Amino acid sequence: MVLASHVIFSAYGFWLPNDPRGSWSDFVGSWELFNAGGRATKTTERRSLAYDPHDRQRRLATKEALKRKPVIFDERQRNRIAEGFARSAGKGNVKVWACAIMPDHAHFVFERHRCDAELLANFMKGEATKALIAAECHPFLNEREEDGSVPHCWAQGQWKVFLDTSEDIRRAINYVRRNPIKDGMPEQSWDFVTPYENV
């Protein structure tokens, strides 16, 4: 039985659908990206592919074909994102056991919920976007579309792993907690994250 989920969602440009390490995408929705990097590299791997050997130059060259520069959130933006995540978790009564807000992606471990993981990720992204716009620090605030809307700073979709045991949950929580440290950032502590208790 699924007890929890480990979900990762990316900022725009972080992990492309044709990343040589694999992706969670079935197709490449842009001719420019397709021409630069080829077909989607759909994978069903449950483990992280972040440190797998790959053609790094090809991956970076493909990013040059993006319509906009890849998003890198600064500290102020990450704090606003945390406010949005907290609001979303509160509205949905989502029990979050771990969260890491990285410069170009976010990790969550949360308890099984009446909503599926994809919907929860969309709610989180939506509230984070509102918080960025309200604070006037959305990365694409000055690149509004003709209708006045702000382009998405999050990639579509997410990567998820369903967690079936307490051991899986603890392993995922530890992975998420260590993620900032591996990238030279301080360990993160957010008010909306509650300790995991095996009940």
Outline of the structure:
The protein is of the alpha+beta class and 199 residues long. It has helices spanning 31-37, 56-63, 75-92, 117-134, 166-182; strands at residues 4-10, 96-101, 105-111, 159-163. The chain starts with a strand and ends in a 17-residue tail after the last helix.
How do the helices and strands line up, and which of them pair or pack?
Elements: E1 4-10, H1 31-37, H2 56-63, H3 75-92, E2 96-101, E3 105-111, H4 117-134, E4 159-163, H5 166-182
Antiparallel strand pairs: 1-3, 1-4, 2-3
Keywords:
199 residues; alpha+beta; Alpha-Beta Plaits; four-stranded antiparallel sheet; 5 helices; globular
Considering the protein shown, what is the CATH homologous superfamily of the largest domain? Transposase IS200-like
The helix/strand order is: EHHHEEHEH
Number of helices: 5
- Radius of gyration (CA) equals 17 Å
Choose one word for the global shape. globular
Give the total of beta strands: 4
> In terms of structural class, how would the helical and strand content be classed?
alpha+beta
Fraction of residues in helices?
25-40%
Strand content: 5-15%
Could you say what the CATH architecture of the largest domain is? 2-Layer Sandwich
State the CATH topology of the largest domain: Alpha-Beta Plaits
Please give the oligomerization state of what you see: single chain
Could you give the distance between the termini?
15 Å
Largest beta sheet: strand ordering: 2-3-1-4
Give start-end ranges of low-pLDDT stretches: none
